[in-house]
Structures
1.
Amino acid sequence: MLHADPLGYCELPAHFAPCEFRIKWADSAWERSEAHRLRRAVFCEEQGVFDGDDIDAIDAHAQLIVAVTQVGGMPDQVVGTVRIHEDRRSGEPGLWWGSRLAVAPAFRSHGKLGATLIRLAVTSAHARGCHTFLAHVQAQNLPLFRRLHWKPLQPETLHGRAHWLMQAELDHYPPCFDVFSGFVTRSTAGRSGVAA
């Protein structure tokens, strides 16, 4: 029996769940394409934040980070993504931003994917001279970011939705230089009924 998430993003047998995920900088065309597809599914179809597509001028110079399922040690599908970029308009080297954090609905209770995407986003920017890492975080995600050592700076409204401008506490994010290996996390779905 196959199980599809509400957006039809992926189909899995109801009893199957990948046990391992690699979170890394996207370095192939299929990873980038699937990351954009996932963003459209989450931000356009599921949330209705954007009409049709969420790609903007930042994508021309942003680095995509992906969470990829591993099946038999091989990459299978992109199930999470975030993008990072150094702010070129500010004239302040070392000011970085994260945005477009998305995890496929069928994988939101697996392996702390959102937290690990955030971790690689900040640690890889830190390794490239970041002294300040900011993000506009949807209000419902404020508790998650606080647990991950981010501090709220001010409430804002973006795209008609409540957000918080937040800053990562870099002391909790040591630099990560091996961005194409990134991090590996294991699935926690089904353990004690607790979602990651």
2.
Amino acid sequence: MKKTSESQKIPDEAGAKTKSRLRENLEAIVIAVLLALFIRAFVVQAFKIPSGSMEPTLQVGDHILVNKFIYGIRLPVTNTKMIPVSSPEHGDIVVFEYPVEPDKDFIKRVVAVAGDVVEIRDKKVYVNGRLVDQYTVKHTEKRVLPGAVNARDNFGPVIVPEGAYFALGDNRDNSYDSRFWGFVKDSAIKGEAFIIYWSWDKDNFGVRWGRIGKVLH
């Protein structure tokens, strides 16, 4: 009976260990990718701010994280909401599918929720008859446009329907928002923006270090 030499055993064992390590590495990579996709789909997603419609709160070049879990996990295809922690509230900064072009994402501030009566008079926003002045907003024009000409400075009053929200940009004179295209449906909301994790000023080609880590509210 022919015996296996030690020199034959060693290469076989080395090959087996190499295959085992390769398999472990591939499994680790697959698990990491699946975990990243799960987190991005259901927990936290990164977004970049492309326009100045939310200035001064958000600036062009800010990179933000959005909590997708807080308003409930939405199942693919059916878009059914599960395990909602809360619903969008007054003042929340939300990312949502742009109603006119659902493949685009918009970010605005929730100013009124279902059942609220919202009205804008001479640039001032009123919700249920009360002036809303607790948000940091920006106006770039002193000119006030009549409602018959443009909805920017004079709008409503309107009642926010069930399952919808009225959202405005903080840069009120330069924001395309609910004043022009209507309400944001609850089913279109992807999550709440909660922190700036990176900010790049392309005009001055530098990092805005003071904005990194800023909690949004």
